[in-house]
Design brief:
By secondary structure, the chain is mainly alpha-helical. The chain has a 3-stranded mixed beta sheet. The chain has helices at about 30-35, 40-65, 75-95, 105-110, 115-125, 140-145, 150-155, 160-170, 175-190; strands at about 10-15, 20-30, 100. The chain folds into 2 domains: about 1-130, no CATH class; about 135-190. The N and C termini lie far apart (about 50 Å). Helices cover about 60% and strands about 10% of the residues.
Length: about 190
């Protein structure tokens, strides 16, 4: 029988030195150290390296070389999907060894995205295939579809709705995100 190892609880924090310089660091839960009597220094260093590589990759993808500010409106849906994939791969790489106790807060701080957006990206990376995300459909529509995905799947309508959404994007007949949300509600009402 395999021995199950305990995941290392970590918190990604931002500290400030006496000169006002901010730095991101990783803290380990003291309880883990006391419970296991194991020095996880090597694993923590591996985690930090992976986290900082992920942050660097994601920020470069999302902001490009100009990190002056967010540009949500100008970012193609495929870029959001690529960002979602980067975050998912990071999750997969750490999920067996670590649990981040302030995960969405850290990603919010380090990527400049809202907590809801971070959470949506993580869900979307599992829900959609990369090839299903089109730049002709703003990413906010995929977020709206994601929020109704469980209900649509219950009636075996998710795939058809994704096809319909992408078709509207291709032929430029999207009616606005708020109207699309109302359409999803109507589609579900008709299914019940």
């Amino acid at each position: 029988m395999a021995v199950k190892t305990k995941k290392i609880p970590v918190k990604i924090v931002q500290t400030q030195d006496i000169h006002g310089n901010k730095k991101v660091g990783v803290m380990i839960d003291l309880g883990y150290y006391l419970d296991t009597k194991v020095d996880p220094k090597e694993k923590i260093e591996k985690f930090k390296k992976l986290y900082f590589e992920t942050v660097t990759k994601a920020r470069k993808l999302f902001y490009g070389s100009d990190e002056l500010g967010k540009k949500y409106q100008k970012i193609p849906s495929s870029t959001y999907m690529n960002l979602a994939i980067i975050l998912r791969k990071f999750n997969e790489a750490i999920e067996n060894e670590f649990v981040i106790t302030n995960y969405t807060q850290a990603l919010h701080r380090d990527f400049g995205l809202s907590r809801d957006y971070v959470q949506d990206l993580l869900v979307i990376s599992k829900l959609f295939k990369k090839t299903q995300i089109l730049d002709s459909v703003p990413f906010s529509y995929y977020r709206a579809l994601m929020r109704k995905s469980n209900e649509l799947k219950k009636y075996n309508m998710f795939d058809d709705e994704l096809i319909r959404l992408n078709k509207m994007g291709k032929i430029k007949t999207l009616s606005g995100r708020e109207n699309y949300k109302k359409e999803l509600i109507q589609v579900l009402k008709q299914a019940t």
